[in-house]
Amino acid sequence: MSQNRFSEYPLDESIVKSLSVLKYTDPTPVQREVLPLLLNKKDVIVRSQTGSGKTAAFGIPLCQLVDWEERAPQALVLTPTRELATQIKDEIFNIGRYKRLKVEALFGKTSYQTQVKNLKQRTHIVVATPGRLFDHIERGTIDLSQIKTLIIDEADEMFAMGFIDQVEDILQELPQNRTTALFSATMPDAVKKLTEHFLKHPKYVEITDTDQSKKRIRQQYIRVEDEDKLATLKDLLIVDNPDSSILFCNTKVMVERLMKELDRADIKVDMLHGGMEQRDRTQVINDFKRGYFRHLVATDVAARGIDVADIALVVNYDLPDKPETYVHRIGRTARFENKGKTLSLVNPRDRASFAAIREAQGDVLEEIPRPSRATVDKYRLDFEQKQRKNPMIRKEKGLDFKEDIMKIHINAGKKTKMRPGDVVGAICNVEGVTGDDIGVINLMDVSTFVEILNGKGEKVLKALQSTPIKGRKRRVSRSNESEYERDLRNGY
C-alpha cells in the first residue's frame, strides 16, 4: 500500500528534513507509485505529464540511495535541454542538502574545464545533456564506474531532438548492474525500443490524470488572419491581464520580432530562445521565475526548463505542428493542482495542425471571438496600471534553507594548495561543531565556499575569522547576498 506522507517512507532523517523545508509533505500520485520501486532498485517506465512532480519522484530515491563516502558519481540523470538540467540539478541539490550531497550539471555552452575541475571533487549525482556527457566520456574526464542508478528524463523529447544514438552509446558505457528508470510523456517507437534493450523486467507506471489536468486548463482559440495576430494578442493581454504568461512562437526570428513589438507597446516582456548565450538564457529564466517581468516570449526547447507553479496564461502565438508539442506547452500552466488558461491564435494555414490537436484533446477546446473594442477599452486602464507596478517577487524553494544554512566564503582555493580536509579540520576545531554541521564544499581556484548547517553558521564564521586555516589566517566572510535576495528582503 502506498504511503500518504513522505515521513512514512524509509528515508534518512536528513532527506525528510529537506522535504519539510521545501514544504513537500504529501506525495503526488507519480511519487507514490515510483518511490517504492526506485527505493527497492526496480527498473521502471513512467508515463506522466509535466507538472506531476516527477523530478522529486526520482530525485528523492537518488538522494536516499547514494553513499556519501563514495567520491565517484553514483547516479546519473540524462535530460534533453540545458534548462532542464539546471532545474533538475537545483531540485536534487535541495532534496539532498542536509545529507551534504554534491550534484553537478553537465551541459554545453558552459566552461568544459570548470566541469572537469568540479568532477575531480567528490560528486554524488550528475545531471547531464547527452552531448556534453558524451564529450566527457570520450575525453576520459568522468568516472562512470560507480553508477548505480540511471534516470532518462523526457525520453520522448530527447529522441525528438536526435539524441537517441548518443543515449545508446552512453548506456553502453555504464555498469550493467544498475537500476534504470525512464520517464516520458508519450511512448514513441524509439522509446519502446530503448526500454526493450536496456531495462530489466521494468515495472510500468502510468499516471492517468489527463482528464483532471484538462479540467484545470481552460483551452480557448481564436481564428485570425496573419495580419491581425499581433493586434489580437495585445487585445487579449489587456483583457486577460495575467500576472504571468508564456507566449510561444515556433522560431527564434518570430520570438525576437514579437518581443520588439510588445516592448514597443510598453508591455513588460523578455524573450528566450536557443540562439541566445547560455548565461543570458539562465538569467532570463531566473528573472521570470522570480517575477521580475510578467510576460515571456519563447520557443519550445528553451521553455522546457521553466517550472513556475502559477503561470496564469499560455498563448500559442504560433500554433505548434504536433499535438505532443501542444500538450507540453499548455502544461506550463495549471501545475500542481492550480488552474490555468490557454489561448491559441489559429490562422488558415494551421488547418491540418489544428485538426490534429483538436482530435487529440477532444471537445475541450472552446472557440471565442476577438475582444470587442469596447471590451478592450474597458480593461485598458487596469492593464496599464498593472504594467506600471513592480510585480511581486516570488520566493524560490531553496531560500527557506537560509534560515538554517549559512554559506561561507574563504579567500583561498586550489591555487593556494587548499584542500577540503583543511577546511573540515578548521571547522571541526570550533567548539560545539562537528562534521555533521558541514554541508557541501565547493573548492575553486582562489576561493572556497562551504555551507554550515544546523544554524551554526554565525559561530563558525566568527571563529574562522580569527583562526588559521592551513597555517595562516584567511579572509572569511558570509557569501554575498544576491541582488534578488536583497530585492526579496526589501519588497522590491
UniProtKB/TrEMBL annotation:
Keywords: ATP-binding, Helicase, Hydrolase, Nucleotide-binding. Coiled coil: none annotated. Residues 478-492 have a biased composition (Basic and acidic residues). Residues 216-376 form the Helicase C-terminal domain. Residues 469-492 are annotated as: Disordered. GO terms for molecular function: ATP binding; hydrolase activity; nucleic acid binding; RNA helicase activity. Pfam families: DbpA (PF03880), DEAD (PF00270), Helicase_C (PF00271). InterPro entries: DbpA/CsdA_RNA-bd_dom, DEAD/DEAH_box_helicase_dom, DEAD/DEAH_RhlB, DEAD_box_RNA_helicase, Helicase_ATP-bd, Helicase_C-like, Nucleotide-bd_a/b_plait_sf, P-loop_NTPase. One of its GO terms (cellular component) is cytosol. SUPFAM superfamilies: P-loop containing nucleoside triphosphate hydrolases. Residues 4-32 form the DEAD-box RNA helicase Q domain. A motif (Q motif) lies at residues 4-32. Belongs to the DEAD box helicase family. This is DEAD/DEAH box helicase. It comes from Enterococcus aquimarinus.
